[in-house]
Amino acid sequence: MNRYVAALTLALAGPAAIAAEAPADTVYRNGYIYTVDAKDSVRQALAVRAGRIVYVGDNAGAKPLTGRKTKVIDLHGRMLMPGLIDGHMHPQSGGSRLLNCSLDYEALTVAQFQSRIQACLDKDKKSGASRWLVVVNWFQQGMLPDGVETTAATLDALKTERPVIVRSSFGHSALLNSKAVQLAGIQRDTPDPAGGKITRDAKGDATGLLEDAAQDMAMNLLPPLTVAENLAASRAALAAMRKQGITSFLDAYTDPETMTAFADLHKQGKLTARAHFAVLIDLDKGATPQSAVAELLKQQKQFDQGPTRVAPSMQVRHAKLFMDGVISAPAFTGAMLEPYLVNKGTADKPDWQPGPSTGPASYFSSEALKATLSELANAHIDPHIHVDGDRAVRESLDAIEYLRSTPAGKEVRPALAHDEIVAPADYPRFAKLDVTPVLSFQWAKPAPDTVGALKDYMGPQRYALVEPQAPLLNAGARIAFGSDWPVDPLDEWFALKVGVTRTAAPNAGKEYAGTLGTQPGMPRAAVLRAITLNAAYTLRQEDLTGSLEPGKLADMIVLDRNFFTIPAEDIANIKVLQTVVGGKIVYQAKGMR
Ligand SMILES: [Zn+2]
Predict the structure, then answer these.
(1) Could you tell me if residue 365 is inside a domain?
(2) Considering the domain boundaries, does residue 5 fall inside one?
(3) How far does residue 570's CA lie from ligand 1's centre (Å)?
(4) Which residues form the Amidohydrolase domain (predicted)?
(5) What is the pLDDT of residue 232?
(6) How crowded is the C-beta side of 516, counted as CA atoms within 13 Å?
């Protein structure tokens, strides 16, 4: 073929045909390639060119795409799937906690608790007597033996002059040593702050334990993260994500300092996941829906880097709203339709009866929520609403029902995060109103925060409804996953396991054996769809990520075992061997060649 004829042929065939013939950069062969396409198809081979998937099919079909410079990866039957998309997490606090003194969410005896913290003190020789030691990821409800007390005296026994604060992983309490209590200005007659409690002993003296808003009395004394610490935190967060296989995420409650740190990493070419940020809308501090959304748009203008493209970038297109707190003891700040139960009997002979409280009034009134959602809709910002109790869920659905009746409200993609308890009458409304529940699957297991902190206070009927994953799925809801890291350790594979089994880890102890209630788990395919394509939908990225299909971005992971064929409990042990974002390998484990 002479040059003229070749050019003519190319011109006639068009760009698609040229593209199909150019060799791929990478070809994966001999795999169990789980695509998450409309049929959840499984294929054998996949090819990537310029960061995009150009072929999914059998080995033979990949051959014409394999040129001399194409890197060929033999998967040896291993599973390749879309990268994980975490639809709700807090990367900055997660990352900074990785750098703090951490108790790692472990169940500890008092002696172990003390020696772990002493080890942190001993290791940190540079800090002076006035510098706070911040200890994180304390599994407060898991202290051994059950019901053992921890007070300032527990921490005063440590060899240090420094103020010490130990923060519960749950975020609802903090323990101080006596030096810290003194610095926080807490005395015998100090009143409880609004929304918080200074725990006191029989004599009325503070024990060192601060609950909810009272924690601020100490937290406000901690210096904010420096620029360098913020950078270190986001760097640590991204490293943890790469290892887990997370290729996109939503920071569900961001701030300019966090976005500045991620923007710096982006500039350095070190942003290894597609980063989305939700800015808080809070009308408490005199803001109006208009002024709050205007502030969000200001941050969007500063940090949003435009539509999704091959290389990871930053997007600011979500608002975070809080409708309530948490339904579990001792907070009871979840907004409920029916009262929390209280024990009117004794510890030995309990008699659980409806108490006086259904939790707080929702943090947004019906009118304020409607006005805020409308303002967001006009600004093309998607609302991501924290709802834990069934009243918070219902009121949010009511406001979204109104929103859907307005022209701008039809295009919005609202997400309701957490949904720990939903009135069954509201299950079908998620599908009807096209609202995505963003669930943390790992909460659906017997654990101190369910068996211990929910069961009695909910009563048997409501307890049977908590963590309604399968019921929402069966009612047609598009379920997405969000880890809520660092409320729990970043362990997506454990969370997915719980989504399937509703069981705790095998070493959780016999009081936490069995499943949470009698609800079934979710089918494995639905669990994977929640953390891929459905989460992509909430980020408006489903045309480009979330499944492995030609034309989409090559965001994908190779697993060390097959999610579908291993025993369900083994899902928690899955290790990611390779993480690819936009065709670029950002993480590779030793076992992968
Ligand atoms: Zn959260």
Answers:
(1) no
(2) no
(3) 27
(4) 71-587
(5) 95
(6) 33
